[in-house]
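To the structural biology subgroup,

Please find below the input and predicted structure for Radical SAM core domain-containing protein, which we are adding to the shared reference set this quarter. The sequence is reproduced verbatim from the submission form. If anyone notices a discrepancy with their own records, reply to this email rather than editing the shared folder directly, so we keep one authoritative version.
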Amino acid sequence: MMDHFHTNIYITNYCNRKCKDCYYPKGDETMDVSLVDKTVKWIVDTCYSYDVNFYRAHILGGEPMSEPTTMLYLIDQLKKKLPFFVRPPKEGQFVVFTNGDYLFPMVLKELKKRRVKILLNPTNDKIEIIRNKMETIKRICKGVSLAVVLDYINMDRIEELTDLAIEFDSHIRINRLYNGGAIPGYVEKYKEKMHKVFDKLLEAKKPMWPNFIMESTTPTWDGEKNPNFCGKCFVAINHNGKIRSCNGDMSTEIGDIETPFKELCFSHRWSAKNLSECNGCEWIIWCQGGCPLTRKLAYGTYEYRSPFCSAFKELFPRLMKLKERWVV
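Predicted structure (tokenized):
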């Protein structure tokens, strides 16, 4: 049995942007109908084989909104063929990650009809352009979330982006650069800026979804087991059908959509149980030692706690205040 099953599906490697910190190789290829059908079958077969309770799909690229026909076909086939016992998690079953450059009203209306949530990546657009995109998405879809990657431009203006999230009653996800722990001064800047983010979020006195504000931490989790799905019940599916165990590491290919889930060989599970530095830490349930890829890029090994550990320990008490507000 598998409680949660999560897939990141990269339907295309085309993107009109050339963000230097993007990990997904760019090209001009898109899943055809046959490959989409095979991908859906692989997901459905996995759900049947493991009696999956909750399934969620993030649809990415490249830029997925540049291929609306493929995107909508994938969603429709999954909605049609997923087993009746598979439920959507509270945060929604389908999420599209987009830079917002292809916000055609007709496509947005189709996404709303299918109850698809939209994560807007602000890239390095000017604040007014981001605001206009958020207004368009919210007007048609009734909601929008921000997914911020903290390159140097967005690190410097994260307070302004937080203001936008508050203004639009939007959830904000804030991710560091995967290699941030290896960049001199980056962790200290992250800590400083995230304190300012929490200043604004706590002052706003609005319920704010607390999960993923600080990396992939999930403070609403109250169980004893590891709440994170990395290396356990998650796969990234490339536009060519190849399967990876790590979203940000293209070298973690473990099979393809012809490979049954049970034959995939996962490694580097997101767990702190073998990290002596994490033993006894009060935040271990929610942190789990931090992202394995970030540890690898900082130290050349997975065997040490996150280079962001000192920042997390300072920030967790503030994050938990947001959790208390949300849960109440």
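Summary notes: The beta strands are 4-10, 54-60, 94-98, 117-120, 145-149, 172-175, 234-237, 242-244, 253-256. The first helix runs from residue 33 to 50.

Regards,
Lab coordination
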